[in-house]
Amino acid sequence: MRKRSAVVLAAALSSLCGRVECTSCRLAAASASTSHVRGIRSIRSQSLPYIININRGGGGLSDTSRQAWSTGSNTYDYRPSKSPRKNPYSRPSPTLGVPSEKGLEDATKEQFAEAFLRREDRQRFISRVYAILSGQLLVTAAAVHLFHLNPGGIRDWMMYTQVGRRIPLIGLAVSTIAYMLTLSPNNAQSSIKWPLLIIFTLGESVAVGFISSIYAYSTVIKAALTTAVATGSITAYTLLQKNPQYDLSQWGRALSGLSVAFLLYGLIHVLEIFGIVPRGFLPYTEALYCMFGAGLFSLYLAHHTRLIVGGKSAKYQMNEKDYVLGAMSLYSDIVNIFIYILRILGDVDD
User: By the 8 A CB rule, do 205 and 139 touch?
Assistant: First the structure.
């Protein structure tokens, strides 16, 4: 009886874990993809000098490598006067020849996009993201192993004591708040991002460690290996897929719509578990639900990987200072994939 109640509470917590992550990071990812709140920049194929040339009315370069002005079929060379006449009675306008603030902002964004397309800058950003991600996964693996060293003591204390029962929920709530705070551009680019990263990782590790302690250690190892293979395959596909017609960076809106439906369906199931909603309110199959969840977060993993990797074929990409946010996004996707695969294998093995 105690084993059955433990499995039920773990299933509810894992459902809530996936759903809360779904709400916080996925809806924010959609808004970031549409309104560029998270510093995702739009990549333009035209270079800045060419745009400035066209705006000035230039028709290209003449044979003498000077700027040419085109009128119909005739081409005239423009040569500025060496000593132009000046009106001694006129005063120069304070705004004449000074670019507007909006123009400077657009030029800065254009130069940033062109500079960040350079391979060395992008590779430095990617290396930072995956270095942080590796540290997060190591901390989570250590937490899972720690929970399995004494599964009866730690798990029973968290399941059947008033204080212990709140720890996984508190860890999940704290990690979600830390992630939402990191979405702010000011926090993502300041030193406060490091404490938020530590809080987020520790909170997630406690929740994942508690959920994994319900299942056999062999099942956890199988789920971890399956998640590693899936993550490697998705990452390899994203890196090799360079067709702009299938740009993975533009999937934000579609994935957010699926996430909202998935969130509501999972929330109703959690309410059914606790008796708030009568059982059978909506048809529910654990295996299909977990398969859909693993597939959804696999798509999110591909989407976030493309935002991080970027390139000329990607319409959107992350800011070079968002390496902490990028690592947290990938970590959240991988953890959710692991949880759903663990629930699928747990139904078979246990």
Answer: yes
